Amino acid sequence: MGFLKSIFGSSEPKEEKALPWQALTHVAQLAEIEQRSQAKTQVIFKHSTRCGISSMVMNQFVSAYDVDANLDLYYLDLLSYREVSNEVGYKFQVIHQSPQLLIIKNGTTVAHASHGAINELDLERFV
């Protein structure tokens, strides 16, 4: 049976890792994020729910994320909240990409990445 498990995997459900996401659904939240970034690093993950690459990157990000990191995480469904997504680009001076991760400190974007480069960012450097 051990041999079959190694080939086909276990039938036991995997434990899902839950991140402390805050939904980014209103443009007004961007001013709050800017203000909070003065004291604590803010991270925005822009995700396209219809894109396979975006879903893959999101899953990799969740798997690798250190839940004890001292930062605030925002999740933006950019298809449902396109106006918010557009405003993120204007306010934090980044060209829209999807998926995209922005790291905000002291009111400005100190790092951002898209696609596979998201998981190459060392978030600990910005805490």
Query: Which consecutive residue ranges, at least 5 long each, have pLDDT under 50?
Result: none
- In CATH terms, the superfamily is Glutaredoxin
Total count of domains: 1
Mean pLDDT: 86
Helix content: 25-40%
Largest beta sheet: strand ordering = 1-3-2-4-5
Number of strands: 5
Strand content: 15-25%
Total helix count? 4
Return the string of H and E elements: HEHEHEHEE
Distance between the termini: 45 Å
Query: How would you sum up the global shape?
Result: globular
Overall radius of gyration = 16 Å
Using the 3D structure, state the CATH architecture.
3-Layer(aba) Sandwich
CATH topology: Glutaredoxin
Largest sheet: 5 strands, mixed
CATH class: Alpha Beta
The chain-level structural class is: alpha/beta
What does this structure look like?
The protein has 127 residues and is of the alpha/beta class. It has one domain (19-121): Glutaredoxin (3-Layer(aba) Sandwich). 31% of the residues lie in helices and 22% in strands. The protein has four helices and five strands; from the N terminus they run H-E-H-E-H-E-H-E-E. A hairpin with a 2-residue loop joins strand 4 and strand 5 (108-114). The longest helix has 13 residues, at 52-64. The chain is globular, with a radius of gyration of 16 Å. It starts with a helix and ends in a 13-residue tail after the last strand. The relative contact order is 0.21. The mean pLDDT is 86.
